[in-house]
Write a structure and sequence with these properties.
single chain; 438 residues; mainly beta; Leucine-rich repeat, LRR (right-handed beta-alpha superhelix); 30% strand
């Protein structure tokens, strides 16, 4: 049943969603918006699309707020950001406790630029949960690798009704549990003392054991991870080769994500990097071919070597203004990447950083960039305009930085510096494409 209450006096503009509806959009609930008809009456009841009960998707704007699974739950224009007094309400999920967004309102206002923001979660009981699927009867003995700082400080529940287990000693630990039937299980790791590290922090060993031809089947059992308390960092190689891992929640207390931590997680589609992380290290998301979205917090100061290399579904990324360097091959072969803004604080762009980013249409290099690596924009065939605002031509490490770009591509440089660019080492290779109009 649809009802109305007069809203003319309230001055509520037409077209806002009904926040009393069961399926009202999260952004509208957060902002107290309501549906108003042409007469100025508030319409109450379930808000539906013309085809039935599917909620209206949240439109992308300048500031976009994402849940852990990549669902956009709220969005603001920069004008709406300026007027905002609080961030949107946190989403809710059974078994998880929302910890807030990985940007503060003050941080977003200080940045005053388009940005993607993600929600952070911790498990409601503090236990780390590993969701696995055993598909075949020949693979019943499941390995587990972790680190503990206190003997018997981590209690393992295998999720099949068997007795909980602890191991003596500290440092790298591993064990194996034999299940009696196939199916889905949730392994929980409860930190009763000290700290928990996920995986062995060693090459070729992820949390589900050794990553090689004989054992990939165990790595691929892992489908979902909710990190709990007692974990302050994601160790190197922690989830490497977990190719069926589709989503992960990482709590706000985690301050570091190690090299190769999610490399080859080919089903992982979205990640919220928690607010305490300051750098994205070598190859963390390399070969995550389904990764379409990642939210990077304000405290990150560097994008490491090959971080997003071969993330072929990554279509856009917002880089915080505090980032000062983009590492070699950071976005190499991100062939769907159509939108990236290099912030003003960046001073160096590594070798092959954007090689084969063929969906990019325009590239703006801010005035603070002093070094551009060789092959940095090689095979960026879709770029029509390269706008380079540096007065003194940046050092080009090699003569192939802009090789294999479109025949009609234009390199725009400051008017007063055109001659300097045309004669500078390695820049001279591209003199015919330069115009001085900045």
């Amino acid at each position: 049943m649809i009802g109305k209450t007069n809203a003319l006096a309230a001055g509520i503009p037409a077209g806002y969603h009904d926040t009393s509806a069961v399926d009202a959009a999260a952004e509208d609930v957060a902002q107290g918006k309501k549906i108003v008809d042409a007469t100025g009456a508030v319409v109450t009841g379930t808000h539906v699309c013309s085809g039935g009960g599917t909620p209206v998707p949240v439109a992308k704007k300048d500031i976009n707020f994402y849940d852990y699974d990549g669902t956009r739950v709220a969005s603001w224009t920069l004008a709406e950001l300026a007027a905002a007094t609080a961030l949107p309400a946190n989403p809710t999920h059974d078994g998880l406790t929302a910890q807030g967004w990985n940007w503060t309102l003050a941080g977003l206002k200080a940045e005053n630029a388009p940005m993607d923001v993600g929600q952070m979660y911790i498990t409601d009981d503090g236990k780390t949960r590993l969701y696995i699927t055993i598909a075949g009867t020949g693979r019943m003995s499941v390995p587990l690798y972790w680190q503990q700082t206190v003997s018997e400080g981590v209690t393992i529940d295998w999720g099949d009704g068997s007795a909980a287990e602890t191991l003596t000693g500290t440092g790298n630990k591993n064990t194996t549990h034999t299940y009696t039937s196939t199916g889905d299980y949730v392994i929980t790791l409860n930190v009763t003392d000290g700290a928990l590290g996920l995986g062995a922090a060693s090459a070729s060993f992820c949390i589900m054991g050794e990553a090689n031809d004989a054992n990939y089947v165990y790595c691929n059992m892992l489908r979902k991870v909710n990190v709990g308390s007692g974990v302050t960092s994601i160790a190197a190689y922690a989830f490497q080769y977990c190719q069926s891992l589709s989503n992960v929640t990482i709590p706000s207390r985690v301050s570091g994500i190690g090299n190769y931590a999610f490399q080859y997680c080919q089903a992982l589609s979205h990640v919220t990097i928690p607010s305490g992380v300051s750098s994205i290290r070598t190859s963390v998301f390399q070969y995550c071919q389904a990764l379409s979205h990642v939210t990077i917090p304000s405290g990150v100061s560097s994008i490491g070597v090959s971080v997003f290399q071969y993330c072929q579904s990554l279509s856009n990324v917002t880089i915080p203004g505090g980032v000062s360097s983009i590492g070699p091959a950071a976005f190499n072969h991100c062939q769907a990447l159509s939108d990236v803004t290099i912030p003003s604080g960046v001073s160096s762009i590594g070798d092959s950083a954007f090689t084969y980013c063929q969906a990019l249409s325009n590239v703006t290099i801010p005035s603070g960039v002093s070094i551009i690596g060789d092959y940095a924009f090689n095979y960026c065939c879709g770029v029509k305009n390269f706008s380079i605002y540096t007065i003194v031509p940046p050092t080009l490490y090699g003569s192939s930085c802009f090789d294999n770009i479109a025949a009609d591509a234009v390199i725009h440089v400051p008017a007063a510096s055109l001659n300097a660019y045309k004669t500078a080492t390695n820049w001279a290779e591209y003199a015919s494409k330069m115009v001085g109009d900045l």
